[in-house]
Specification:
Layout lengths: L1 H27 L5 H6 L5 H11 L5 H13 L13 H7 L1 H28 L4 H14 L3 H15 L15 H6 L2 H27 L2 H8 L4 H12 L1 H26 L4 H11 L2 H29 L6
Helix pairs in contact: 1-15, 5-15, 6-7, 6-10, 6-13, 7-10, 8-10, 8-13, 10-13, 11-12, 13-14, 13-15, 14-15
Amino acid sequence: MIRSALNRIFGMLVVMALVVTIVFVIVRVTPGDPAAVMLGPDATAADIASLRQRLGLDASIPEQFVSYVGGVLRGDFGQSIFLNMPVTSALMQRAEPTFFLTIFSLAIATLIALPVGVLSAYWRGSVFDQAATALAMFAASIPSFWLGLIFMQVFAVQLGWFDTSGYGGPGASFGERMHHLVLPAVTLGLISSALITRFTRASMLDVLNDDYVRTARSKGMSEWRVVVKHALKNALIPILTVIGLTAALLVSGAIVTETVFGLPGVGSLIVSAVLRRDYPLIQGALLVVAGLYVLVNFIIDMLYLVVDPRVRY
């Protein structure tokens, strides 16, 4: 197990090295001078030269790359142009809404998808199965911004149960901030549950007719124990995979939802950075998102070893 973990950690490091290189290249191949693009058409030559020196763009490409990698290794992603603060600090200030939104959305999606997918496979061909499959396909086709606007209109404007936007004032309590996340979390959770439901159903169908399931039934075990302890346990590998991918996608998918609900998270920060062409902030955000993808995949790989010992070999 330790050997498998070390192999996967090495793979993570290789992937992150490639991501750092790609992010560096993307900024350097941007048409025109990045400093001139960031400052706009009214910038003077002195302003452009000053910003180029501040960003280290006046050095040679190899020197820039070494300096950039050294900063990343120290956790220094540079200085945000428009926020006039370290990129790391800017991302940390916006991390809380995105973190809890991702956690809550994934929890909602999993709590909906697992039982629905298991029951749909167990009652294959029934009215429940057909209805669940149709609803999953419908949910997968709904744009998150449209569903968010519908929820906002119904539960915030008409019923007044929630605020239409924001994350509470500076002195808002933790409970009040979490209350602002209910609608966006339900929006993302419902849409994300569609994919997990379909994978859960397909994975359960693969194992429900296997020999060990029929053997468990022939021994007189209850259906609940057969389905949960034997079938679901052996179907968890592909289910864990899609849950991990969903968690990673929620981080990037939160960009649209945060914009719709006016949440001051990392997603809305990335949108404003792109519109302002704040390249240091864009670079830092891309590295953080890529790192989260890699970390989630590593956690899922480790869970494989716990769920199915055969993976270790």
